[in-house]
Write a structure and sequence with these properties.
This protein is α+β, with helices and mostly antiparallel strands and 165 residues long. Helix content is 31%, strand content 26%. The chain has helices at residues 13-27, 39-50, 106-120, 135-143, and strands spanning 3-7, 55-63, 69-82, 87-97, 125-128. InterPro entries: Acyl_CoA_acyltransferase (IPR016181), Bact_Acetyltransf (IPR050832), GNAT_dom (IPR000182).
């Protein structure tokens, strides 16, 4: 399978459709216990991404037997800022590969593209969160050099918390 990655153009109909299709599949994936995307979110999500200066989406396309190309993977990322280094950080918020293409190198290609983008932007690091039970995704991230933070372990394990507003 030939895979190519590119930075999505939020104004391209093809890219908008691909982002929405992949994000909808991801939001319903049992691995993340997702409930799916509500219709109201589906109508707005790509416009909302486009409205955010620091949002970026990376798409992976695979060549099909019929000569066409199909979107098979997606990363939605957001540039943030590290006050400890005074440099940007690229947070990978959504990382997904369509179910029939998992295990074929699509995720690694997407992360390589995100890594290259982060380097071009002068980022000091990339961050992401993964559910402890999502062993396949955690394995992919570790194989792409993501590591647990190496700060003072006497303080305990880093945990992810959220507050729904």
């Amino acid at each position: 399978m030939t895979i190519r990655t590119l930075i999505a153009d939020y104004h391209s109909r093809c890219h908008r459709v691909a982002i929405l299709r992949l994000l909808t599949e991801y939001a319903a994936d049992p691995a993340i216990d997702g409930p799916g995307l509500p219709a109201a979110v589906q109508r707005r999500v790509v416009d909302e991404l486009a409205a955010r200066e620091h949002a970026v989406s990376i798409l992976a396309f695979a060549d099909q037997a019929d000569g066409q190309s199909a979107a098979v993977g997606l990363i939605n990322g957001f540039e943030t800022f590290s006050t400890f280094t005074a440099m940007p950080v690229l947070n990978l918020h959504d990382v997904m590969v369509t179910s029939h293409c998992r295990g074929q190198g699509v995720g690694k290609r997407l992360i390589a593209a995100a890594t290259e983008l982060a380097r071009q932007r002068g980022c000091c690091k990339m961050t992401l969160e993964v559910y402890r039970g999502n062993k396949a995704a955690a394995g992919l991230y570790r194989s792409c050099d993501f590591r647990d933070p190496t700060t003072n372990r006497d303080l305990g394990e880093t945990i992810f918390l959220n507050k729904i507003l």
